[in-house]
Amino acid sequence: MITLLTYPPAFGQFSGSPFCTKAAYFLKVSGLPWRREDTLDPRMMPHKKLPVIRADDQLIADSDMIRAYLESKGATFDEGLSEIDKATSRAFIRMAEEHIYFHILLDRWANDALWPQIRDTYFGSVPKILRSLVSGKIRKEVLKGMHAQGLGRLTEAQRLARLEPDLEAISTRLWQNRFLFGDRPTAADASVGPMLSAAVASPGHTLLSNRVEENAVLMAYIERIEEMLD
Ligand SMILES: N[C@@H](CCC(=O)N[C@@H](CS)C(=O)NCC(=O)O)C(=O)O
Asked: What is the mean pLDDT of residues 183-206?
């Protein structure tokens, strides 16, 4: 039995982390037996991040490594895709995980008005008397990281302008398809879908969540993605 170590459900989603949702999707499609084990504390994990799976008496960290492990056990996530499609798929995965993700992180961690709700969800297991102290320290580190990465230096409006071509690229692929590469979900959907879904599920309204909510194509896609995990 494979165990998925994941952040707990949050904001009505499988997990507060779109990477954990991605891993759960891969596990589900793999057909292998698995169960979830929720934790809010990734400090004992190999990269101090989640998701991680426990399988064959080892810990496998990172959703891409989890995908590779499941593929080594016979799972296929890109059935029927041409080599050209697989190349495009890789670019969409990177766009979702290395760009869109950081906007969601900023929407959640940089917005003072929404912070109390985020803090009490992410740090709910920390006793109230310590919660502001512990969460404040981690928040500072996250925002420092985002400043170093660069997106943390942009205004919310500048960030939305930066995201616009990504959202258009996704909508363009979905214009005539139920999923990014046709009628069936593939690995790219496991990254892009949970990311868009997380953008909308974040508490409150941000320029990003409004932008996605106003787009019928993206919202219908998110619904299809969420059904896959039901
Ligand atoms: N590349 C990793 C990213 C995982 C990741 O960023 N996880 C975040 C939650 S969304 C995390 O655990 N962060 C904890 C921390 O940075 O302290 C993957 O694909 O699994």
From this structure: 96
Q: Read off the pLDDT of residues 34-64 as tens digits, 9 standing for 90 and up.
A: 999 999 989 999 999 999 999 999 999 999 9
Distance 176 CA to ligand 1 centre (A): 32
What is the position in ligand 1's atom list of the atom closest to the CA of 142? 16
Question: Whose alpha carbon is nearest atom 17 of ligand 1?
Answer: 49
Cα atoms in the Cβ-side hemisphere of radius 13 Å centred on 170:
26
Each residue of 67-80: pLDDT tens digit? 999 999 999 999 99
Q: Say how many Å lie between the CA of residue 89 and the centre of ligand 1.
A: 21
Residue 189: give the domain boundaries.
83-228
Tokens of 133: 């102290």
Provide the pLDDT for residue 221: 98
Question: Domain of 46: which CATH number?
Answer: 3.40.30.10
Inside any domain, residue 78: no
Query: Between the CA of residue 185 and those of 19, 29, 36, 137, 211, what are the distances in Å?
Result: 17, 10, 22, 39, 24
Q: Which residue, by CA, sits nearest to atom 20 of ligand 1?
A: 62
Same domain, 55 and 112: no
Residue 77 lies in a domain: no
